[in-house]
């Protein structure tokens, strides 16, 4: 019977065969301990000289790191291991012998590991991060499907900027100018006018020359848009979504969080509703914490967001930012013309903004005024303005950055480890 490591608990006391790679090994006289991985998990296999043929035992002792094998034996419960089971080996067959595998159990520098990212992914820690990432994606689909959202895929090649920035990757689209998408939001608004509640999940690109631990050039966003939903209602959906992600990871990724040595008590104590402070209050809070240079109208950097987050046990919403530092499409505050109905959700522990969202302008004349203020002309933007011309309604949306969320929930320090093949300012391969 051929099985995977993840299926081993279902085959306790039965003899099975597993296709695996040798992650590590140690031997002590008449016994060898093989650390196996097969993509579904990690497990120890015990090879006892007295229980198998001499030739098989010598093969086991001479296995090199990352050699691929078929290994046969009895699955036995072992409460000492994190996985809970091990294999007592009766036979093994070498498929391909790996020679001079470059990533050894010793310490390696970050640049070396990034140069070998295609191999670094095989390590136990990187495997755990990718499993948590997968769980967040799975839970995202479950949450929005259960809430009646429809998955819609916006284009990656676009003729315009979603947020009016110049930090775009430019390309030629036959005889036209085109850009790699920095957000699917504008298209998702059109989809919401057709389907009510929609969400997208896809790659976005920012030509931002940043080297901080929070930034990637290519990253993945979950972007819901909701018809007939106003700002306050959107905030409730956001915190419910984040709570669902946290609970799903805690429930389904216990082994991975243990591998990553994540302090799960910090996640377990998070409860909705999340605190909310206005931008005005955030400025005052920062001044009290010694940020004397911050002024009303300034955007927040990583140190500011961390200082604000450290004042709360939960993630915190900062609401009502100044109009001039936010995107052109955000709905003005009903009582003030200098701020807009928006919110950034700041994660605890220094992980920064994980969600940005707002109510969108739905009045045609006001949106046309914003177009004129920002110089948005031509067919690349005309269709978006048209959404306000034919049955316009209040609507809201937000975007959650997948990699920042993975970093936060796993406790990983640098965002480059949260995506399989990171694109950084100085890195386009592997």
Descriptive notes:
The chain is of the alpha+beta class and 430 residues long. It has 2 domains: 2-96, OB fold (Dihydrolipoamide Acetyltransferase, E2P) (Beta Barrel); 118-418, Bira Bifunctional Protein, Domain 2 (BirA Bifunctional Protein, domain 2), CATH 3.30.930. The chain has 13 helices and 17 strands. The protein has helices spanning 54-61, 110-115, 117-120, 124-146, 185-195, 231-252, 254-259, 265-268, 279-288, 302-309, 364-374, 379-386, 402-410; strands at residues 2-3, 15-28, 31-37, 42-48, 68-77, 85-96, 150-151, 157-158, 170-173, 176-180, 197-205, 218-227, 276-278, 316-319, 342-347, 352-360, 395-401. An 8-stranded mixed beta sheet has the order 7-11-12-17-16-15-14-13. Strand 3 (31-37) and strand 4 form a beta hairpin. Helix 4 crosses helix 13 (402-410). The radius of gyration is 26 Å and the shape is elongated. The relative contact order is 0.11. The model has no long low-confidence stretch (mean pLDDT 95). It is found in: Cytoplasm. Its EC number is 6.1.1.22.
């Amino acid at each position: 019977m051929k099985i995977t490591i993840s299926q081993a608990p279902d085959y306790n006391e039965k003899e099975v065969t597993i296709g695996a790679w040798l992650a590590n090994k140690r031997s002590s006289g008449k016994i060898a301990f093989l650390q196996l991985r097969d993509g579904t998990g990690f497990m120890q296999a015990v090879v006892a000289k007295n229980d198998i043929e001499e030739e098989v035992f010598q093969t086991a002792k001479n296995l090199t790191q990352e050699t691929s094998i078929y290994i046969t034996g009895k699955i036995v419960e072992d409460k000492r291991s994190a996985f809970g089971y091990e294999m007592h080996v009766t036979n093994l067959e070498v498929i391909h012998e790996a020679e001079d595998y470059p990533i050894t159990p010793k310490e390696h520098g970050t640049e070396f590991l990034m140069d070998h990212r295609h191999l670094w992914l095989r390590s136990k820690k990187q495997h755990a991060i990718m499993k948590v990432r997968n769980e967040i994606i799975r839970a995202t689909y479950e949450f929005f499907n259960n809430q009646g959202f429809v998955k819609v895929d916006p284009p990656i090649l676009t003729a315009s900027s979603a947020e009016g920035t110049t930090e775009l990757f430019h390309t030629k689209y036959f005889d036209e100018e085109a850009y790699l998408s920095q957000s699917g939001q504008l298209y998702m608004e059109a989809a919401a006018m057709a389907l009510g509640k929609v969400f997208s999940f896809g790659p976005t690109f920012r030509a931002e020359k940043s080297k901080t631990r929070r930034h990637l050039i290519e990253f993945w966003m979950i972007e819901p848009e909701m018809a007939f939903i106003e700002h306050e209602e959107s905030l409730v959906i956001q915190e419910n979504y984040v709570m669902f992600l946290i609970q799903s990871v805690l429930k389904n990724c216990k082994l991975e969080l243990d591998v990553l040595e994540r302090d799960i008590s910090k996640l377990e104590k998070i409860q909705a509703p999340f605190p909310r402070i206005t931008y005005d209050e955030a400025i005052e809070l920062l001044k009290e914490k010694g940020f004397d240079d911050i002024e009303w109208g300034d955007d927040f950097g990583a140190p500011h967001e961390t200082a604000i987050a450290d004042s709360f046990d939960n993630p915190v919403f900062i609401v009502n930012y100044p109009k001039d530092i936010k995107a052109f499409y955000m709905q003005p505050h009903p009582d003030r013309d200098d701020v807009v109905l928006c919110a950034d959700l700041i994660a605890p522990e220094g992980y920064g903004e994980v969600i940005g969202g707002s109510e969108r302008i739905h009045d045609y004349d006001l949106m046309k005024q914003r177009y004129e203020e920002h110089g948005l002309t031509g067919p690349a933007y005309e269709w978006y303005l048209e959404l306000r011309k034919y049955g316009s309604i209040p609507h809201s949306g937000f975007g959650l950055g997948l990699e920042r969320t993975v970093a936060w929930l796993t406790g990983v320090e640098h965002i480059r480890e949260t995506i399989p093949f990171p694109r950084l300012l100085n890195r386009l391969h592997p």
